[in-house]
């Protein structure tokens, strides 16, 4: 819509140029046409400069005065909409807001607010989806809300998701239940590659493992995680040495274009990683965020704080 309005304004200004030109020069000669062309070139050049200056202003504002959005579970408004379901976590958007505010210590340069899908825009440094593997979706066929998220990341934002992200969606305007985005089973099981997370971001995750129809691995699964020196140099210290966490749909080594914040001991799975997408990042937390008291949430909040507060980290990942 914004792009349409910008193009409409440009067209209106050019039309006004021509109207003024025709009024001032009823019988124009070649010199007059060359002057008009020159003025139009200057106009478009100034528009280009102003657009770049505005992009620079947005980047600087996001970097030094970060605004953090937390999805509230609605597409437009709480009035006449169902709330987005979050079956794998008890951490509500309000709890996220409280916990994040406490971790950031109410820093004067940060602004944390609950937002609907319709409020997503490039002014936010970071947006958090607290609904686990689900999210509010306005159009379940064309995936309008999902691609709005993609556009936000592509233009330089950081979007935070938890394990199994974008597996389900819910049109909160018309339905009180979420449902799988893609239904494609093999032997009664859903392939992890048949998901928007893999198809759009190239992220493949861990999951329950079956051998000869017998379940051998079930998540959440307790694992040991560590940060190597590269992880620490990029994202600061997040863990207190070797720690145990509950893994839930963690990013695997087969995924594309990612940087781990920490990893399992064998470096084959990465419970916290950022995935490059356009100018921004998807922050993927493959941990079981069971409650506000869980160690997994505290670790994730520490990582988010580093990404918001530490300007050295920002300079490295957004260089």
Which features would summarize this protein structure in a list?
nine-stranded mixed sheet, 319 residues, Rossmann fold, alpha/beta, 8 helices
SSE topology:
Layout: H1 2-24, H2 30-64, E1 67-71, H3 93-104, E2 111-115, E3 126-128, H4 144-154, E4 158-162, E5 168-169, E6 179-180, E7 185-186, E8 189-190, H5 196-201, E9 209-211, E10 214-217, E11 221-226, H6 229-235, E12 243-247, E13 251-252, E14 258-264, E15 269-270, E16 272-277, E17 280-285, H7 295-309, H8 311-317
Helix pairs in contact: 3-7
Give a description of the structure.
By secondary structure, the chain is of the alpha/beta class. The protein has two domains: 2-57, no CATH class; 66-317, 3-Layer(aba) Sandwich (Rossmann fold), CATH 3.40.50.880. The protein is 36% helix and 21% strand. The chain has eight helices and 17 strands. The strands form five sheets. It has a nine-stranded mixed sheet, sandwiched between helices. Strands 5-6 form a two-stranded antiparallel ribbon. Strands 7-8 form a two-stranded antiparallel ribbon. Strand 9 and strand 10 (214-217) form a beta hairpin. Helix 3 packs across helix 7. The longest helix is centred in the first third of the chain and has 35 residues, at 30-64. The two termini are 30 Å apart. The model has no long low-confidence stretch (mean pLDDT 87).
Tell me the radius of gyration: 24 Å
Mean pLDDT over the residues: 87
Coarse shape: elongated
Helix residue percentage = 25-40%
**Count of all domains:** 2
CATH superfamily of the largest domain: Class I glutamine amidotransferase (GATase) domain
Widest β-sheet, arrangement of strands: 2-1-3-4-17-16-14-11-12
Structural class: alpha/beta
- How would you sum up the major sheet? 9 strands, mixed
Order of helices and strands: HHEHEEHEEEEEHEEEHEEEEEEHH
CATH architecture of the largest domain: 3-Layer(aba) Sandwich
Number of separate strands: 17
The CATH class of the largest domain? Alpha Beta
Oligomer: single chain
- The CATH topology name of the largest domain reads Rossmann fold
């Amino acid at each position: 819509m914004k792009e349409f309005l910008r193009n409409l304004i440009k067209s209106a200004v050019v039309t006004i140029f021509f109207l003024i030109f025709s009024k001032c020069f009823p019988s124009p000669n070649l010199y007059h046409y060359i002057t008009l062309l020159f003025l139009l070139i200057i106009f478009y050049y100034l528009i280009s400069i102003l657009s770049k200056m505005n992009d620079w202003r947005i980047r600087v504002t996001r970097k030094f005065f970060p605004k953090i959005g937390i999805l509230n579970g609605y597409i437009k408004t709480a009035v006449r909409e169902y709330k987005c379901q979050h079956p794998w976590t008890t951490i509500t958007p309000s709890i996220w807001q409280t916990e994040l505010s406490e971790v950031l210590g109410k820093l004067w340069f940060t602004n944390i607010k609950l937002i609907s899908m319709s409020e997503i825009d490039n002014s936010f440094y970071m947006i958090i989806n607290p609904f686990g593997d689900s999210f509010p979706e306005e159009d379940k066929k064309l995936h309008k809300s999902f691609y709005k998220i993609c556009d936000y990341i592509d233009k330089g934002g950081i979007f935070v998701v938890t394990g199994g992200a974008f597996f389900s969606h819910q049109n909160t305007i018309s339905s009180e239940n979420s449902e799988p985005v893609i239904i494609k089973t093999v032997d009664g099981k859903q392939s992890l590659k048949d998901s928007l997370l893999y198809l759009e971001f190239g992220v493949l995750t861990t999951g329950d493992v079956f051998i000869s129809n017998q379940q051998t691995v079930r998540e959440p699964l307790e694992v040991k995680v560590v940060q190597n020196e590269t992880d620490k140099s990029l994202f600061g210290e997040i863990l207190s040495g070797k720690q145990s966490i509950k893994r839930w749909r963690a990013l695997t080594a087969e995924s594309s274009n990612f940087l781990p914040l920490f990893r399992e001991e064998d470096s084959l799975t990465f419970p916290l990683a950022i995935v490059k997408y356009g100018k921004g990042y998807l922050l993927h937390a493959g941990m079981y965020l069971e409650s506000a008291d869980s160690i997994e949430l505290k670790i994730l909040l520490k990582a988010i704080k580093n990404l918001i507060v530490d300007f050295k980290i920002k300079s490295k990942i957004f260089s």
